[in-house]
Amino acid sequence: MSLKHYAVLALFLCLLGIPLRGHAQDRLGFDGDDLVTPDCAAMSDWFECRSINDPSVNASVRRGYEYIHHTTSTLGPDAPRNETNTFEDGTAYANASIACSSCHFTGGHVPFGTPFYQVPDKYASKPYFRPLNYNRDAADSILDCFSNCMNNPRTPPKDDPVIQDMLAYIQWVADGVTDPSMKGAGWPTLPGHGLPVIPGVATMTANPAAGATIYANECAGCHSDDGPGQGEYRSDESRPRVPALWGVNSYTRGAAFYNNQNLGAFVRQFMPYGDPLTLSNQQALDVAAFINQQGHPDGLADQMFCHIEADNIPASLRKPAAANVGCTYPGEPFNSTQIMNGPWAPITAWRNAEIARLLNGMRGVNPGINLLLNDN
Ligand code: HEC
Ligand code: HEC
């Protein structure tokens, strides 16, 4: 059906009072249009799906859910303005073409779909965040996503009620974990808590020109034809129908998706919507390269990996091989095309050799150094 026919049909159905896309609810009570939902039956050994609409769910958790799932209508520029969602100068907390749950599928319930069930235990120990050289807690990781995943130039303070409600919601998701061995220090055994990985990706090469054709055939029908797919702002809906993949309101160069290995694996796992795992690994990598070649905002990208680590090694040597952000180690023989599109194994090998050389030169000066090598 062409867009024009779609519009005529939509108008006709609207006149009859029938919405073209119903706001159907999934079993967790998440309303929306098309959602990537968890397979609750398959997860039932270790996770209990509970409805957000259950009367036992407290008000803070519900507000957190609204901010994370209906980001546009609660924190976006057209949300009714109030002191909870607006900076003193009148700017909205969030851009509009993407919701947190556009990537954190069904509000962080989907294995490999950037879930939230691991977050409280993972961040309890304030793990080191190498790109920005600090130890962060769960609130910090939310703020980093505000900046890097959604291109919001300003972020609310950590004790802001919006952030506190988001944390309450994230804790509620984590409370769904039923297997005691996966709680606390056992969080790394939670299925799908990290991004998926394409097997053997380090020796592959992404081809953005081939990706352009795949994008046109497999993705554009939703992501481009539907305006917000390119970052255009749609003001009349509670969350983007199809989220932005590039443009001013999309994820920035500082985001985990601005790394073709990460985006390719995520795309293969979940897209095209409704038809996951149908692209080959190569096709997924190619389409990711095409998307990341389009315009992406800077976010915090240029500040990343610019420090010297505690063992005197420059962080630029420990960047993921596919991260084309932040500082570059002097004399490195790789251009940004190879860093974006691979092959990545030679980059990792060169950097590891340089780390080893530096550490060797420092031997005796700083004994007991823990040599952390990139695995991608
Ligand atoms: C049938 C419509 C449809 C098609 C086709 C489609 N998508 Fe999506 N895409 C969606 C929807 C809807 C979401 C958000 C799902 C949700 O909110 O749970 C999404 C989310 C995404 C996301 C995560 C959100 C973001 O903005 O980063 C990425 C990445 C993505 N799609 C890439 C692709 C790629 C690449 C293709 C082609 C291989 C593709 N999509 C094909 C509908 C589609
Ligand atoms: C464009 C996609 C995208 C959007 C939009 C987005 N995120 Fe993220 N977020 C990610 C990715 C990718 C990661 C890294 C996941 C990983 O490395 O395993 C992440 C990480 C996080 C983490 C840390 C998870 C962990 O286990 O380390 C939190 C918390 C988080 N995001 C919250 C949010 C919130 C709240 C919003 C909305 C204000 C948001 N994100 C918007 C993609 C997104």
Structural classification: mainly alpha
Q: Main beta sheet, described?
A: 2 strands, antiparallel
Compute the number of strand runs: 2
CATH top level of the largest domain? Mainly Alpha
pLDDT < 50 stretches = 1-22, 367-376
Elements, N to C (H/E): HHHHHHHEEHHHHHHHH
- Overall pLDDT score: 89
The helix tally amounts to 15
Give the CATH superfamily of the largest domain.
Cytochrome c-like domain
The largest beta-sheet arranges its strands as 1-2
State the domain count.
2
CATH architecture term of the largest domain: Orthogonal Bundle
Assembly state of the chains shown: single chain
As a percent range, the share of strand residues is: under 5%
- Span between N and C termini? 42 Å
How would you sum up the global shape?
globular
Percent of residues in helices: 25-40%
- What CATH calls the topology of the largest domain is Cytochrome Bc1 Complex, Chain D, domain 2
How would you summarize the topology of this molecule?
Elements: H1 3-15, H2 40-43, H3 59-69, H4 71-75, H5 100-103, H6 105-108, H7 119-123, E1 128-129, E2 134-135, H8 138-148, H9 161-174, H10 208-218, H11 220-223, H12 260-270, H13 281-293, H14 336-341, H15 345-361
Antiparallel strand pairs: 1-2
Helix pairs in contact: 3-9, 8-9, 10-13, 12-13
Residues 34-36, 98, 101-103, 105, 218-219, 221-223, 242-245, 251, 257, 267, 271-274, 279, 287 line the site of one heme C.
